[in-house]
């Protein structure tokens, strides 16, 4: 019975034989009959493959998948770092250095801690240092309470993100042995961006601490010990300028109450003497015991004075000739 119905439906759809012409078959009925016949014969075609998504859509999906994987992989590390950073830092008087910015080399941190402890036990001067980025870390109140700062304490604040990475706070008794200009010079020599770029943050900080503790141990310093290359070149240039002024004064002709040329040199002594003695020799003598920079400035002053005073060509080149000499 089922075969007769199938044959009848197929014949009505024109599916049995190409010579059989269907008489106005219904498309839905024909489709059902064809599906039934194919199911009986086991020749059901596979479903058509799904259309592939466009290239842009596939790239976007791959990028989203990669971003999600990276986020999931880094999430535990970031959370751990934030938890560690959020933990409060214990400020203790037994820990003179809090290196939150990791400026001090790890191998020298304990030695620096012991150096500051020895300075306190031997001299009574207390040096404490905090390295941090910006305002992160303990507040000023926490530092004062934890370190128990007093009038004999120097607090060093190091911020690598600042143009000048060093700042100092010190008590009144510290001012009696180390003046405010001393700390200004210390900050300018070791904390400016050029010194940090040349020496590195770690070396600049360690040299600064050694200089500060050395001055406190010896009972104070009027200026920062040591003569940098830039500072010496400045004193050398000023010494040359003083020699030029002295030589020019010796070229002036006597007139009026001045009957000798050396009198002009004496009258101009406040000018060339200030350049040569105060700015040429003073910084060298006060900052180093090395005789080589001192001798170099003296020689530069003498050569400049002799060249201008006794060489007409040099005097003319610098515009220091008189009318008589030019004639």
TrEMBL record:
Classification lineage: Eukaryota, Viridiplantae, Chlorophyta, core chlorophytes, Trebouxiophyceae
Segments crossing the lipid bilayer: 262-285, 291-310
Name of the protein in question: Methanol dehydrogenase
Keywords: Membrane, Transmembrane, Transmembrane helix
